[in-house]
Amino acid sequence: MSASTINDPTVENADKDQETAASFQMNEKHEKEHEEVEGEIEEEPEEAAERKAEEEEEAAEKIEEDAEDEEDEKERLADEEEDRKDKEENEKDKLEEEKERLEDEKESYVLKDGKKVTELPTNGLYEFHYEDGKTLVNFKNGKKNGEALTYGEEGELLMRVNFVDDKLEGPATQYYFDGNVETTLHYKNDKKSGPMTGYSQNNVKRFDANLLNDQLEGMFISYDQYGDKSQVSYYKKGYLDGPSTTFFPKSQGGGICRVCHYEKGQLVKEDKFFYPDGKPLQTTTYDDKGRALVYPTNFKPSGEIA
Prior knowledge:
This protein is α+β, with helices and mostly antiparallel strands. It has helices spanning 3-6, 9-107; strands at 109-112, 115-117, 124-130, 133-140, 143-152, 157-164, 167-168, 170-175, 181-188, 191-192, 194-199, 205-212, 215-216, 218-223, 229-236, 239-240, 242-247, 256-263, 266-274, 280-286, 297-298. The chain has a 21-stranded antiparallel sheet that branches. The N and C termini lie far apart (147 Å).
């Protein structure tokens, strides 16, 4: 470099400008770094707070999950305990049933000609003994045939029926413990069919009925404690069906107390009540579904509407 260049003020000024620019850039860099550091310092507390909140939330969820697990475990243990108790109870019931069965076997036996038998009945009279009584029945070719009598534990006759080839057939009678007749009825092909009459224990008639295939069919007459007719109704296939008339006791004249009508067990048409002298007391009309169409109409003893 020549002396003239060294001493040239233009060159000196250029060098100074370069130094100034470099210094300015350095200052900008330091300021930017300072701002970044300040930003990091400002952000760190917020991130820490968020992280702490997340940790607390996770801890709370963990506590809640642990509590649920503990509750589930309690329920499981309770269920296991209940199952165990049920199993013990079932086992106890089975043992009790087995004990009763063995006791019944001791009390139950079959006699033929006064001797115990274990083979199936064939022919002749067999006695089936139970804890509370016995039944005597005739067999023919392995089937019940003829009269069968059932007795109570005191030896009292309780029932008399008849069999034809293992099926109930013909008249049957049920008795009270004192020997009085309770019910007379008929069987046909192992089903109650025909007239049936019931009696009170002091031998007063309680009802007359008719059955068909184990169901009430036709007229049913009820009697009061004195044996006087108290009601006449009709049945069809086990259901009230037709007119039904109720009577006052003889002490009140024995007249009609009520007249109504049934269809398939439903009260229909008119339902009429009467005073003992025969005058109307109350009338209600029903539809074919058994629903009252209007409020009952009440009458005074004079016959006027109340």
